[in-house]
Write a structure and sequence with these properties.
The protein is an alpha/beta fold. 36% of the residues lie in helices and 21% in strands. The structure holds glutamine (GLN).
Length: 558
Amino acid sequence: MARYLFVAGGVMSGIGKGVTTASIGKILQSKGFKITAIKIDPYINVDAGTMNPIEHGEVFVTKDGLECDQDIGNYERFLNEELTRTNYMTTGSVYETVIHKERNLEYKGKCVEVVPHIPNEVISRIHQAAKKTKADFVLIEIGGTVGEYQNLLFLEAARMMKLQYPKNVLFILVSYLPVPQMIGEMKTKPTQYAVRTLNSAGIQPDIIIARSEVPLDQIRKKKISIFCNIHEEDVISAPDIESIYEVPINFEKDNLGKLILKKFGLKERKKDLKDWQKLVKIIKTAKKKVKIGIIGKYFETGEFTLADSYISVIEAVKHAAWFHKVKPELVWLSAEKYEKNINKLKELKNFAGLIVPGGFGSRGIEGKIKAIEFARKNKIPFLGLCLGMQLAVIEFARNVCRMKDANTTEIVKHCRYPVIDTLPEQKALLSEKKYGGTMRLGEYLCLLKKGTLAYSIYEKANYWEKKRNKKGDILIKERHRHRYELNNEFRKELTAGGLIISGINPERNLAEIIEIKDHPFFIGVQFHPEFKSKPLSPHPLFREFIRAALREKTSNLN
Ligand code: GLN
């Protein structure tokens, strides 16, 4: 039977519970165990697909087309594996199943109640994930913070599992220890309260991960031990560090892996963190910089700038930069400023490469198109992701093919040149307001035309499905999340003008990749390669984008 590790958060959100969970997974994996990780989000949304990225961060997409929380992305990146929809649940999705079962008489006439039927459904999903992945360890991250009303039923499920399988269930509390400026001393009281709250849900943590700005000292360790009813060696210090990828290495220094195994009565099967250690060494020692601009709009919230909305893109750039042993320098460029002041475009010359990531709606669109035009004309390496690809097509149509008011029907419903248009099946869905989970989602095939840049990138990297057609074209698989596509009615005119369609979906003849000639690197993809990039296997498109950027421009740290 699998072992289950529940991870809950104390004191406040945003303290790196996801990275902690992923890192624990990584170190157990390095000891020779099969790991899987589940994320529980306590909100009513059935999935994360309808949420605004500014509020909730990036929506991650699994290969089987689930729109979920960015933590699933963290798990994939750390475990170097692909997860599926069995690894994710929300309050909404759990209730949806229970209500559906009730309507189908699956509870055989019983009164269906919040407890135990909701926690039972949660437990059954956890078992399902364990079975499907054949994991030795299942990590279950409960979203939110203990004490919140929203995640109580998930804590209840965890408590019930412990009662049922006392030797196979462990609780980890990731808590925060503030060091208030005016006091200058680390305070343990909020963590003490968090543990009491957890106790009132019938749960005693076995391990406390103490997140703070600085390492935990012996006095604080002792205090937590006494007041939280836990041994000192079970309190792990987790101070802020520069890179999230260093977390597993730091945990290993504290022997967290061994501690967990010991609690389950297990021994390590092997020790293998070498590749990870190599990666962290590069992260910490790379000197030469590559400066990449990300032109987007989901950055600002009040006075703060959020990078969370584009987390997979950022990570993919980092992975690729480290592959070339350089330090990524990412700069957020708000597209709207290029609409207000065209002169600002000149600043784009300072970048070694530019990315226009995915997005929805009209804000900032014209600014992004201007920036793409600038990148095309000034031969700045450019990578367009999903919306970024669509806008590159619009720019090309307007400025090269002279289709003056070319646009996407997402923005202008009736224009003369709708070069980007709704996927046929989306029309009915949109008119019926069926927005949730209805985009073209998840992994689809794409055929790469021999002789194109995209073909050579994937082929050289050995990143394809090992299937060729008679012409020698190769198949790849990439993850999608969109409702609009390149309008095939304009394909002829666009290609006559010089646009190269280097990748198409063979089943539906949809344009998946565009590129142009006589440019150091100009590629737009209808899919999201960033979702597949992992630190130990960076995505080839990002790798080659960074290679081109380095060729064009490099700068030194000093
Ligand atoms: N809004 C565009 C579409 O739905 C692009 C989506 C995206 O960038 N993920 O097709």
